[in-house]
Amino acid sequence: MSQKFDVIVIGAGPGGYVAAIRSAQLGLKTAVIEQYKGKEGKVALGGTCLNVGCIPSKALLDTSYKYHEAHDNFAVHGISTGEVKLDVPTMVGRKDQIVKNLTGGVAALIKANGVTLFEGHGKLLAGKKVEVTGMDGTVQVLDTENVIIASGSKPVEIPPAPVDQKVILDSTGALDITSVPGKLGVIGAGVIGLELGSVWARLGSEVTVLEASDTFLAAMDEQVAKEAYKVLSKQGLNILVGARLTATEVKGEQVVVSYTDTSGDKQITFDKLIIAVGRRPVTENLLGEGTGVVVGERGFIEVNEFCATAVPGIYAIGDVVRGPMLAHKASEEGVMVAERIAGHKAQVNYDIIPGVIYTHPEMASVGKTEQQLKAEGVEVNVGVFPFAASGRAMAANDTAGFVKIIANAKTDRVLGVHVIGLSAAELVQQGAIAMEFGSSAEDLGMMVFSHPSLSEAMHEAALAVNGHAIHIANKKKR
């Protein structure tokens, strides 16, 4: 007789493990299935984010920035250190230890909440049954009332650049480079490409980023994207937009990259090439015959606003469904689905999901961009405050960027907050909180912000929306 559960979750990434824990907290008998193996050859929970995504990349970004600060910026503070050296294997080892600590922590949480873990591959069958193929090849079928598919995503592969994880790397392989490449190429100027490119540029690589689109960071607010291009170029990232990869040829320990732009065909040789052109949903061998679950043209499982598929009791969340491929979006969907299975009326506010690029300065946004609102015909007022006018940013020797707040011209309601600068991720979250409660720019402007703080830039930008900024000259209204 097969085991029966109230909820079975396929995948233990930020969507899956959160869904499993919340389901168990709500009194539902819950199981989670995971097949990903970590570096030590054992099943590791946490999905892409913890193992080969958000967390390890931030560890490398932090180490590389500390090196850059010590190497290039300490002198302005009157600090001299002698020759600054970096041991790359130690940096990578620290990253691996952080990953191990966090994935181990997730496993402990799963156990503490009474969730049953199955190590192996999960496959949805007809009639709400789930087949688990264990690591040793043994197969068992589980019964359940509800299934939450949280199978995640993986890097997009492109035919002109087959990944060998030696010279041509995907975002996973790029986390384990053991020495600083002399010349590094990055295909794709998105979040992953810019973050990984930044790591190695700080450590001394000559970095060139090839972006097929004619627009740099097209999804970001134009003003932020323009500033980002300027700042990142100054940092040594050679960003080529409208540059389409056509072929690669590995020659020994180097790779010759052929690309085309407006002036014709070109070639450039790199020591390493990182492919960072996006991610795609994982649905291989996930659905058996007759499940009724619909997979769309682009490989995403089709769901409604509550992450329910066309089949009652079958849900899908995270990177395998529509919406931004963000860990925090997946987690909130996991909570929502668990709550709805338990009979509660939970929902996710998809209009207020922050997004961050962890370069330095950071770029973060929530809500709509100015160009989106203009395209929709919405009249807006905009307030911008530069960190160059912030005493706290000056003290930190980190004055690049600004805070930008966009409000509805008629109602003053905040519709978007966009930040490029020190601690942008934390500042934009203030904007997200305000927007969740329907705040106006005037509301933010009337709040008391501590001085000196970076948050004052949010305060001043809110005041500037209506021409009331104190610490910069206000734009005259036409």
TrEMBL record:
Q: What class of enzyme is it?
A: oxidoreductase
Q: Where is the active site?
A: H451
> Where is the FAD/NAD(P)-binding domain positioned along the sequence?
5-334
- Keyword terms, alphabetized: Cytoplasm, Disulfide bond, FAD, Flavoprotein, NAD, Nucleotide-binding, Oxidoreductase, Redox-active center
Q: Which residues bind NAD(+)?
A: G188, A189, G190, V191, I192, G193, L194, E195, E211, G278
> Which cysteines are disulphide-bonded?
C49-C54
Its taxonomic placement starts with: Bacteria, Pseudomonadati, Pseudomonadota, Gammaproteobacteria, Pseudomonadales
Q: Per its record, how is this protein called by name?
A: Dihydrolipoyl dehydrogenase
Q: Which residues bind FAD?
A: K58, G122, D319, M325, L326, A327, H328
Q: How does it assemble?
A: Homodimer.
> What coarse category fits the chief subcellular location reported for this protein?
cytoplasm
| Organism name | Azomonas agilis
What's noted on cofactor binding? Binds 1 FAD per subunit.
Report the catalytic activity: N(6)-[(R)-dihydrolipoyl]-L-lysyl-[protein] + NAD(+) = N(6)-[(R)-lipoyl]-L-lysyl-[protein] + NADH + H(+)
Q: Which cofactor does it need?
A: FAD
Q: Where is the Pyridine nucleotide-disulphide oxidoreductase dimerisation domain?
A: 353-462
EC annotation?
A: 1.8.1.4
- Cellular location(s): Cytoplasm
Q: Which GO terms describe its biological process?
A: 2-oxoglutarate metabolic process
Q: Is Ribonucleoprotein one of the keywords?
A: no
Does the keyword NADP feature in the UniProt annotation? Answer: no
Q: Which GO terms describe its cellular component?
A: cytoplasm
